[in-house]
């Protein structure tokens, strides 16, 4: 099972997670600087984070907001790219 996960992700899960976190923070910062906001998705995520925050998880800071904002863009693109990569590699 670990081999399938590594094959799907393209590297070890930890390295992929680390790359996605760094890339999400960078994309979140860039989009924030450019004042580009995917309003509907972002506000849904913001309401969810605020509900969690109000339940007592006050350790979230602005860095988590940048991560979340970037992840909303990076993770779906990553998944679509991996799916296209797998579909292209199955030609027999």
Automatic annotation (TrEMBL):
Domain DUF6460: 52-86
Alphabetical keyword list: Membrane, Transmembrane, Transmembrane helix
Recorded superkingdom: Bacteria
Pfam families per record: DUF6460
Residue intervals passing through the bilayer: 20-44, 64-84
InterPro entries in the record: DUF6460
Name of the protein in question: DUF6460 domain-containing protein
Species of origin: Afifella marina DSM 2698
């Amino acid at each position: 099972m670990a081999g399938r996960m590594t094959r799907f992700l393209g590297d070890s899960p930890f390295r992929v997670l680390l790359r996605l976190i760094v890339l999400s923070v960078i994309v979140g910062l860039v989009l924030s600087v450019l004042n580009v906001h995917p309003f509907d998705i972002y506000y849904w995520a913001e309401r969810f984070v605020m509900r969690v925050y109000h339940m007592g998880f006050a350790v979230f800071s602005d860095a988590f907001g940048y991560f979340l904002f970037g992840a909303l863009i990076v993770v779906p693109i990553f998944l679509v790219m991996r799916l296209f990569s797998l579909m292209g590699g199955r030609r027999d």
